[in-house]
Design a protein that fits this description.
The protein is an alpha/beta fold and about 1400 residues long. Helix 8 (about 190-205) packs across helix 9 (about 225-235). GO terms for molecular function: ADP binding.
Length: about 1400
């Protein structure tokens, strides 16, 4: 049903993204080096321990500290990994961090990792003889935990191509996991907040079910802005989400829909790409179907204009996981209605009041109404623009510099002549007001450059190269709102404005096509080039094949294999392939003569095209040429035009720019981009290029040196040599670089020295020399009075800075992270402009000079993971300091009393220090908002003065030995997050805690608390309460006291606990809650997750049904619980495993959203009434449920069995019509494989000891063979493991989008076996069966009682089997762990 409504609009950042844990000799060069390079290329900040030396017994503190300061870890487990104590300690620390872990199994089997067998067995045997048993146990637990995670599998035999693919997939996942960046929206909007709130209310985020929303309205009315703002408000609620912009335009390109599908899949779950190959729209749809069925997702599709786009990118409603939301924006209301959108929202024009407010902001740069002089004119303009935000924005900006009433009257008359709401004509008035140069720049951007997603400075380079005042023009266009500059500095043009510009150009050729000035559509360009139709009017052409038709040898072989598979008879495969390749190449090769007549051509993009003929035919007026993917090794001698100003040959095969016969050189060249030309071995003499402004040689990895002439390029402003990894030296003399502003040497790992006369580079502002091999900074650096940024991170040979460093009076950023710095010179105190000083991981640095107190501009000081023992007392003079970070400074035992001078600090990070007491003066930091002291094992208390930190919003003291909180904690009126996890000495909370009215998140897991104060219920804003006990983790840990006798008494919730009406998550595992849960529990109406596992209550209140948005209820190991009452219909997951006294389960008919039901080992449950009605049920685990087995079988309906993916229950049989153990399949001509059902009968011998604590069985494996070779294998993961020895039947259904079905679809042999050796040696596989579901086998949903047995659907036959078979058996004599009353 479609509802339609209408609207009238009215953290400290961690230092590292990823920590790499690996054993150097095993993987450093074969895997780690290319992985590190790819991560760096994609902008990921990576910590890699690169010393490669023999390590001692104790792990370096810097490594543990780096783990704490990383958002995620990639663990590369290789055969010798466990041979290193450092590696094992790293791994244990990583597991303790509770952050993202991405394992790579390099030459090892995950099961060997889990069990520490195979290549790890001997290493652990040796360590158990030499190392403390508790530490070895910790290492084993870490190996088991990581071994249980999904990860990449490869070894030394993995092909280079496959290895590169796996690395790219891993990096993509890293980027996805780390991404949580909101989308940029306009800084000033009108009427947006109210519309967003209306939509948020309509989205009903707390409710289950899937909802499809549509926003429609005319172009320029603000649909995209609304969608972006809505997405930003929703993003924190969805782990899997994607925003796809410009669907209409993107889908119109070659393979556009497939490209968008890949973006959706990559955003939602990048690690799924291992088993997903998207070659066409149908395979993309299947992949999307799989992802949205398994995960709660948020998808926003912006600017959709065709039903096919929805079908390809969205699919069907019934595919989506509970709680998913899809939002579509479009100009076509009918498209939404035709696709059964749940709610259609019209984005209407702004009201007159809102329109006037937006117009005033742009026309007068004020939010208030215009002055009386312009008020009447403004009101008329607002009325004529029809309340369209884009028109108001552009027209208002156009009038901004017009201050005479007469000018406004003239423009108003033009506006009156335009047809009502003809947006493009309104926009054109602003265009007409530009001068001729500005018009030309605008049309270049709108027609050509914007589709290349250029940065602002790149556009400036292009237009400046054409002789225009580019900076002025770009500034004017920005002020007029004809273009915008995104947060990443990309030039953006609204599609309506772009359409206006392109219409102007298309109108040029309306009568005579030869008068068109610019071409951007591929078909039109190919027509012009093949027909030699270019004319003197042609100014710009952009043609980019994006490299997809340029084939290397490996790609050619892939195409040939595909064609051979798809073609029945080929008599000469070699000739056949060559003909295909020839046809491809023929379409890409153009004669240079085709450009001869375009004498005024200025801008030309011909990426990945082949050119033949004399290059003298290229127009001499070409100023900008982008030819990425150029196939020449040396450019032809007649290539060089004297008028080239911007030349981009990046990503090319070029080895040298010109040969000996080249007579002309581009003397007017301003920008030369040769980045990623990996074969480039040398740079020629560039002394003739006297105008060269920018030279980009990034990642030219074959370069070992650069020509000495570069040191004399007086016009050069930017020199980028980043990641030229084999570059060993720079020109000796750089005295000619008097105008150089930016010098980038990042990642030049073999560069050992900077030019000694670099002091002549008087204009230098930025010098990045991080991760180089330089050992010293030239003394001449003192002359660089304009230098603002100096980055020397990772310079492992750099031990000291010159004393003259203090002369750099303009320096704002000085970073020496992970360098070998041993001391800071006292002169550093003279850096009066310094704002950021970063000395992280300087493990040889033991002291900070007192002169640091002179840095009056310093806002951020980071000394994390250094060896400093104290902070200088002068630090109290840093009145501008906002961030102080000294985490993991293990020797730092106290803070100076002068800390009271740091009144501007907002973030203080002291994790892992040796501080035992905080000075009272800390209370003077009155604007401190974030205070972190995690893992401060000496910290036993907080001072009373902590209560004076009135602005504090986050306090993290987890993993400390703190024994009590001061009563003044209740004064922290703005505290939002309090983390006390693993404060195992904390026994009591102060009564004042109830005063924390803004507290949203309280984490206090694994503490010694045994009661909560009666004031606890006063925490009126509390949303998250995590207070689980895990006694088994500390039972054998001598560092913490044993539980007191009182701890064994029952726990009672405070009487006002249920006043916490905003509580969303409650985790109260193992708190010894006994008796009855209070009946007023229903007052906790915001609960979505409730975990009461391992408690001693015997019943739950009937009022539990009133928790209307509760989604997950966990009652594991509640061994005294006897009955389950009626539960809320919103429930998605119910887990009551091991509730051994549970007998009665109330009617479950209303649990229409329930997807998982786990009653494993609830042996006394006699029935599950209403089970047959659970249409959403996907997983049901009834292992050990002997009493209810017969009743449950009778309740399994066709509908239920069609949807269930995993079922476990007592039983010894499965349908006779299943194939035993192995099935051979040949692809059917007209019937596609749609699913696979596997049934397994097994038993567990509990008399055999087992140390593996896995919650399920992983030893059953399904394997696909083709031509006798394994092509795919997967564990048939079985949950619901009983505590008896009796046989159980497990059924697993693999649906059409599962990889197992994908690999069997074209035929093969499928077999079910067990691992050898077994992970769980208690397992005995009794029998197994397989049934393949073909198209049409399980589609019929009607009554089948009168249908012939052979024609019945698979689910109907399964239901008949379960309903009719009494699969009873006698318990085995002496069976272990059998249930007793």
């Amino acid at each position: 049903m479609c509802t339609e409504i209408s609207s009238t609009p009215g953290a400290f950042r961690l230092r590292w993204d990823v920590f790499l844990s690996f054993r150097g000799p095993d993987t450093r060069h074969s895997f780690i080096a290319p992985l590190y390079d790819e991560l760096q290329l994609r902008g990921v900040r990576v910590f890699r321990d690169d010393d490669g030396l023999e390590r001692g017994d104790e792990i370096a503190p810097t490594l543990l500290e780096a783990i704490d300061d990383s958002a995620a870890s990639i663990v590369v487990l290789s055969p010798n990994y466990a041979g290193s104590r450092w590696c094992l300690e790293e791994l244990a620390k990583i597991c303790d961090s509770d952050k993202l872990i991405l394992p790579v199994f390099y030459g090892v089997d995950p099961r060997d990792v889990r069990k520490q067998i195979g290549p790890f067995e001997e290493a652990f045997r040796i360590k158990e003889k030499k190392v403390d048993a508790v530490k070895v146990l910790r290492w084993r637990e870490a190996m088991t935990r990581v071994g249980n995670r999904a990860g990449l599998l490869l070894d030394d035999q993995t092909s280079a191509e496959r290895r590169a693919t796996l690395i790219r997939e891993l990096v993509t996942r890293v980027l996805r996991e780390l991404s949580n960046t909101p989308l940029g929206v306009a800084p000033f909007t009108v009427g947006l907040d109210r519309r967003v709130q209306e939509l948020l209310n309509s989205l009903e985020l707390k409710s289950n079910g899937f909802k499809l929303f549509g926003l429609y309205g005319m172009g320029g009315v603000g649909k995209t802005t609304l969608a972006k703002t809505l997405y930003n408000n929703l993003v924190a609620n969805f782990e899997h989400r994607t925003f796809i912009a410009n669907v209409r335009e993107a889908s119109s390109k070659d393979n556009g829909l497939v490209s968008l599908q890949k973006r959706i899949i990559g955003d939602l779950k990048p690690d799924s790409s291992n088993s997903i190959q998207i070659n066409n729209i149908n395979s993309g749809i299947a992949a999307i179907k799989r992802l949205v069925a398994e995960n709660r997702v948020l998808i926003v599709l912006d600017d959709v204009d065709d039903t096919e786009q929805l079908h390809s990118l969205f699919g069907k409603k019934e595919w989506f996981y509970e709680g998913s939301r899809v939002i579509v924006t479009t100009r076509d209301r009918k498209l939404l209605l035709d696709n059964n959108v749940d709610l259609v929202y019209e984005v209407k024009e702004l009201s007159s009041t809102e329109s006037l407010q937006l117009f005033s902001n742009h026309a007068f740069k004020r939010k208030h109404p215009p002055t009386q002089e312009f008020l009447g004119l403004s009101e008329q303009i607002v009325k004529l623009t029809g309340g369209l935000p884009l028109a108001l924005e552009v027209f208002g900006s156009f009038l901004f510099d017009k201050r005479r009433v007469e000018e406004w009257v003239d423009e108003l008359e033009k506006l009156k002549r335009i047809q009502h709401k003809n947006l493009q004509d309104v926009l054109k008035i602003s265009y007409d007001g530009l001068d001729e140069e500005e018009k030309t720049v605008f049309l270049d951007i709108a027609c050509l450059l914007v589709q290349m997603e250029m940065k602002r400075d790149e556009v400036v380079d292009v237009e400046r190269g054409c002789g225009f005042s580019a900076e002025v023009a770009i500034t004017v266009l920005t002020l007029r709102c004809l273009i915008k500059i995104g947060e990443d500095n990309t030039v953006i043009v609204h599609d309506q404005i772009k359409g206006m510009g392109r219409q102007i150009v298309e109108d040029e050729g309306r009568v005579d096509g030869g008068m068109r000035s610019r071409f951007w559509k591929r078909d039109e360009i190919l027509n012009v080039l093949r027909g030699n139709k270019g004319t003197r009017f042609t100014q710009g052409i952009t043609l980019d094949f994006q490299g997809k038709y340029i084939l290397n040898d490996a790609e050619a072989e892939t195409i040939l294999r595909h064609k051979l598979q798809c073609t029945s008879i080929i008599t000469n495969p070699s000739a056949f392939f060559k003909s295909i390749l020839a046809k491809k190449e023929k379409g890409l090769t153009f004669q240079t003569k085709a450009f001869k007549s375009m004498v005024n051509l200025r801008l030309l993009e011909i990426n990945n095209l082949r050119m033949e003929g004399k290059f003298q035919f290229l127009p001499s007026e070409i100023k900008w040429l982008q030819w990425q993917g150029c196939s020449f090794k040396t450019l032809p001698s007649d290539f060089w035009s004297q008028k080239f100003t911007v030349l981009d040959l990046s990503h090319s095969n070029i080895e040298s720019l010109w040969g000996l016969r080249t007579k002309k050189v581009p003397e007017n060249l301003k920008v030369l981009n040769l980045s990623l030309c990996r074969n480039l071995t040398s740079i020629p003499d560039l002394s003739s290029c006297a105008s060269l402004d920018k030279l980009v040689l990034e990642r030219c990895t074959s370069l070992t040196s650069i020509h000495e002439s570069i040191g004399s390029l007086s016009a050069l402003h930017d020199l980028n040599l980043s990641y030229c990894s084999n570059l060993k030296e720079l020109p000796y003399d750089v005295s000619g670089l008097k105008n150089l502003e930016n010098m980038l040497l990042t990642g030049c790992a073999k560069l050992k020295a900077l030019p000694s006369n670099m002091g002549h580079m008087k204009s230098l502002r930025k010098l990045l020399a991080d991760n180089t091999a330089i050992a010293e900074i030239p003394e001449s650096i003192f002359s660089l009075e304009r230098l603002e940024m100096l980055v020397l991170d990772g310079c492992q040979n750099l031990k000291r800075l010159p004393k003259c460093i203090g002369n750099l009076t303009s320096l704002q950023v000085l970073s020496l992270d992970q360098s070998a710095l041993e001391e800071l010179p006292n002169s550093v105190g003279s850096l009066a402009s310094l704002e950021i000083l970063s000395l992280r991981w300087c493990q040889s640095l033991t002291a900070i000079p007192e002169t640091i107190g002179n840095l009056i501009s310093l806002t951020r000081l980071s000394v994390n993971c250094s060896e400093i023992k104290e902070l200088p007392s002068s630090i109290g003079s840093l009145s501008s300091l906002k961030e102080l970070s000294a985490g993991q400074c293990k020797l730092l035992g106290q803070l100076p009393d002068t800390i009271n001078g740091l009144a501007s600090v907002v973030e203080l990070q002291l994790d892992g220090t040796a501080i035992a007491n905080l000075p009272d003066q800390i209370g003077a930091m009155i604007i401190l908002r974030k205070f972190e002291m995690r893992n401060c094992i000496n910290l036993k208390s907080l001072p009373e003065s902590i209560g004076r930190l009135a602005a504090l919003s986050t306090l993290d003291i987890s993993d400390s030995t703190i024994e009590e909180l001061p009563e003044s904690i209740g004064l922290l009126e703005n505290l939002v997050t309090l983390n006390m996890n693993k404060c195992r000495m904390l026994k009591e909370l102060p009564t004042s805690i109830g005063k924390l009215k803004e507290l949203h998140h309280l984490m206090m897991e694994e503490t010694a608390l045994t009661k909560l104060p009666e004031t606890f219920g006063l925490l009126s804003s509390l949303m998250t309460l995590e207070m689980a006990k895990r006694p088994h983790l500390v039972a054998n840990d001598d560092r913490f006291p044993a539980e007191e006798e009182s701890a064994h008494h029952s726990f009672q919730l405070p009487t006002n606990f249920c006043d916490l009406i905003l509580l969303n998550v409650l985790d109260a595992r193992a708190w010894r809650i006994s008796g009855e849960i209070p009946n007023d529990f229903e007052k906790l109406s915001s609960l979505e997750k409730l975990d009461l596992s391992q408690n001693n209550f015997h019943s739950l209140p009937c009022s539990l049904k009133g928790l209307s948005i509760l989604k997950r209820l966990y009652l594991r190991d509640c061994i005294e619980l006897r009955s389950l009452p009626s539960l809320p219909s919103s429930l998605i997951e119910l887990n009551a495993e091991n509730c051994t006294l549970l007998e009665n389960v109330s009617e479950v008919t209303d649990l229409e959203c329930l997807q998982e039901l786990d009653l494993t080992n609830c042996a006394k449950v006699v029935d599950i009434p209403g089970l047959e009605s659970l249409k959403s049920l996907r997983r049901m685990y009834l292992g050990g449920c002997i009493a209810c087995s017969s009743q449950v079988r009778k309740r399994l309906s066709k509908v239920a069995l069609r949807n269930i993916r995993n079922l476990s229950m007592p039983g010894t049989k499965f349908p006779e019509w299943f194939s035993r153990q192995t099935v051979n399949f040949t692809k059917r001509k007209n019937r596609e494989l749609k699913g696979i059902v596997i049934c397994i009968v097994l038993s567990i011998n509990h008399s055999i000891p087992n140390n593996d604590m896995m919650p399920g069985i992983v030893d059953v494996v399904a394997t696909v063979l083709k031509s006798g070779k394994q092509v795919y294998s997967t564990s048939v993961y079985l949950r619901g493991v009983p505590k008896t020895n009796q046989e159980h039947m497990h059924m697993c259904r693999f649906v059409d989008f599962h990889p197992l079905v994908h690999f069997m679809r074209d035929g093969g042999t499928l077999s079910v076996t067990t691992r050898n050796p077994l992970v769980d040696k208690r397992l005995e596989l009794k029998d197994s069966g397989i049934h393949l579901i073909l198209e049409g086998d399980d589609d019929y949903g009607g009554d089948e009682s009168s249908v012939e047995p052979s024609l019945k659907s698979v689910s109907e036959k399964m239901a008949e089997f379960f309903n009719s078979v009494e699969d009873a058996y006698d318990p085995e004599p002496g069976g272990a762990n059998e249930s007793e009353d």
